[in-house]
Amino acid sequence: MYQYNDIDQTLIEQRVDQFRRQTESFLKGQISDDQFRALRLMNGVYIQTHAPMLRIAGPYGLLNSKQIRKLAHIARTYDKNYCHFTTRQNVQFNWPQLERIPDILEELASVQMHAIQTSGNCLRNTSSDHLAGVCIDEIEDPRPYCEIIRQWTTLHPEFAYLPRKFKIAVSGAKLDRAATQFHDIGLHLVKNDAGEIGFRVLVGGGLGRTPIIGQVIKPFLEKKHLLSYLEAILRIYNLFGRRDNKYKARIKILVKESGMEKFSELVEKEWLLIRDDLELSTDRIDAIKTQFTPPAYETDAGQDSGFELSRLENKAFATWIKYNTADHKVAGYRAAFISLKAPDSPPGDMTDTQLDAIADLADQYSFGEIRSTHRQNLILADVKQADLFPLWQQLDALKLATPNIGTATDMICCPGLDFCSLANASSISVAKEINDALDDLDYLHDIGDVKINMSGCMNGCAHQSVGHIGILGVDKKGAEWYQLTLGGSSENEAAIGERLGPAVAKDQVTKAITTILDVYIKQRLEDESFLNMVKRVGIIPFKEQVYANN
Amino acid sequence: MQIIKDKQIVDDSWSFVADDEELKDGDISVSLARWKEDKQQLLKSNGKIGVRIGPADSVEDIAADLKDIQLIELDFPAFADGRIFSHAWLLRGRYNYQGEIRATGHFMRDQVYYLSRVGVNAFSLEKTEDLPVALSNLNDFSVNYQKSIR
Asked: How far is CA A300 from CA A335, A362, A369, in A?
């Protein structure tokens, strides 16, 4: 994991000082609401329904145990004893006081963390594959490039006042677990015919009000040109992206309105003028790579026999292994998910006690590292198989071992009307109701891989348009209604969900979801996943049942 | 009126001549449109010449004339219009402009650090009482991650 040097540390400390001055100026009335809004957003501070919300960066999802303990401390000292993990692998606090946010930032800086550019119309936190470096389908570890991009984007002087927010995701594996096709820029590490590894660059993807799948702008970009190519895209976007209408300001609209051919011509022309000045040297890449070397794996980890025995003897443990762990590239190791989707807890939330406990577990079982995922769970990425049983027992005691990763109750869910001032409808209470209806684990496991994403408004923070089942809260004459979509996906075969029909009332959402799942169970072919069935039969069979009584 | 220039608070010798005003003696700046229209007349004037550029203008349009221009004013209609930052970068980085680049209009003193990094070396603030603070804002950071103009 990347460790800060003096430059990194100086920079974030100076940023804390700067934000402290900005906050003081605002509280003294020296800068306007509008001005402070732009400044605070670029430091992750929103003003929400109840209190400010502070969003802290989890750089491409990597955290260490010391940082997790700091989050626990902040939750206890400055908030109401919990925090929330987001789809961009970030962390949010919902109840800090504005005057104390500079102190929180100072605490964060002491463990190499910050809230820089976690919001606002700027370059946001780069996200990546939560199984980077350990998965079995990797072409190359994306994390060193994520770090290079993190540094390049952080306090970039030219691109701090973009037309709209700008998100970059990097994937280094065959299976896209980072939703790169739905980012302003998506980068895939790929191998060309000559056997060299470089980037396939996608541009213009995005979710929100106008979901669009990104298009390839450069099929193969040499690594040395990574930053110059990003700079070329950003300069064209900064100069020509629309600023007249915030709903038309994302790069996806610029690409759509100018056409890919014209847009890529502009980028290419700009890039050719700057690329020789901005080359990324092999030395620089190698220096960053040394910070992501594999931990000291035990070579005989696969020889343990207790693991198989525990699986045979304990059904609940075996189920947890099946759903909540993933294959690891090193024999005798697995990546273990920490499910933040327990039935009685808001999706993505964690208490200070849980945070402290998993920091200890990470130290004990996974080289002190924790990752956050795009689906709002955590991962201990390097657990020896012999340790899985005791880890499971301890997670279970913490209510962090619900065996539901990748199932219908592993919902992505935004804070919704309960916290967010943008929301039209609640999401947490609806998620709870769905969770209660799907409490039979055998039934849940029989349904298998179903991704339900639910957002409380059009802004789509919970990526409902790419959920296998998407739920979107809308306001209808002051009442909360929910629009359902089917067939979305953010993985390799990216797709935007199709609308099932008219929105349903709040008390009908759970019924609609269980009806959809029942149709699947009755009409699926053998081994056919939910998504594949939707692709095969379309939405009609589902629609007929959901709206049967109307 | 005072401004910040090259990290110092100095008196300003320039005046902007609006499109509907008569040209006058001394160091004057005009809009890009005015420059294009009255270029020959402006070149004969006794003072130095500056051109004011807005976010929607194209820096490329003036690239060939830069040798005759001693001041480029980058004028913010609103602080959030980030095109200005790319204009400054292009002037310095692409067209190698060596004259004064001055930020004018509605920008924040909290933006002067980034502006200085993309090549702006002078700042005309809305409120002159903000000048000392803005001057200190030029030193908000002592380290940077990425290559830019400074």
From this structure: 17, 21, 21
